[in-house]
Amino acid sequence: MSNLVTHNPAALQALMSETIFINGAETVMSQVDGGEVMATPQEALADAEEFVYTGDKSTGILFILRYPSYPYFSPQAEEAFVKTIGALKLTLANVAVVNLANAQNPNDFKRIMTFFEPKKITLLGVEPASLNLPAIGHNAYMKGRVATVFNTFSFEEMFADVEKKKLFWNEFKTFISS
């Protein structure tokens, strides 16, 4: 019998044949096809709450998108995104990007706010109504108690219409700098 050690909730869910129990001590155990999966209670609880995202959520800058065909962006959109945020001294490493098309990511704005604790949120082609937010025009933002939400087009929409790209850039610079 071998011990499997994982912190990935999807892997745990796929491999588990029994319920995980927290025994109050230092490990969480579950039978997995004759082996055991071990994690600390804190890791098990944290993994159960996590979103699949890239970057760093501690900076307070969050980009929300919905790209069903890609983990985050199409190659062309990623290149444009990196250049865009780079012009404002940001990188993929110091912002958080979450793709709501990933089945593991809840499409729930309250959970997004709780997990990421953002101060600035940019919706890239995600309609505010899909997150139960009030209407926000394109290239406009709404200030909330905790965060400001900027609603704009997806990069694919901006590729197709240069005017949309210009409108985005002018407002986005102001939004990030404020």
TrEMBL record:
Q: What is this protein called?
A: Uncharacterized protein
Native source organism of the sequence? Sphingobacterium deserti
